[in-house]
Design brief:
The chain has 83 residues and is an alpha+beta fold. The chain has 1 helix and 5 strands. Helices cover 17% and strands 29% of the residues. A 5-stranded antiparallel beta sheet has the order 4-3-2-1-5, with helices on one face. The radius of gyration is 11 Å and the shape is globular.
């Protein structure tokens, strides 16, 4: 299943469980994701698609900077009542 780039996702398993990220690339069975703090755009986290819950709407049209990711994720999480 192809996932939309730059959509927000929540990690469901692993040491990063319940943390939010942005999809940076789709690699078949895996995605890479960044949150702008612990995982930067230039060193994204690789994760199995089974272990994430993805949002439906992309937050960006093109690859964002780490600062843009931090800001937009914070706003998105707060506006959806996840914190």
């Amino acid at each position: 299943m192809k996932m939309e780039l730059y959509c927000p996702v929540r990690s469901l398993a692993g040491h990063d469980k319940n943390q939010y990220f942005i999809i940076v690339s789709d690699e078949g069975e895996y995605i890479t994701m960044a949150n702008g703090t612990t995982r930067k755009v230039d060193d994204p986290k690789r994760k199995n698609k089974k272990h994430i819950q993805a949002g439906k709407t992309p937050l960006f049209a093109a690859l964002p900077t780490d600062e843009e990711i931090r800001s937009e994720l914070k706003t998105w999480v707060e506006s959806h009542g996840y914190m």
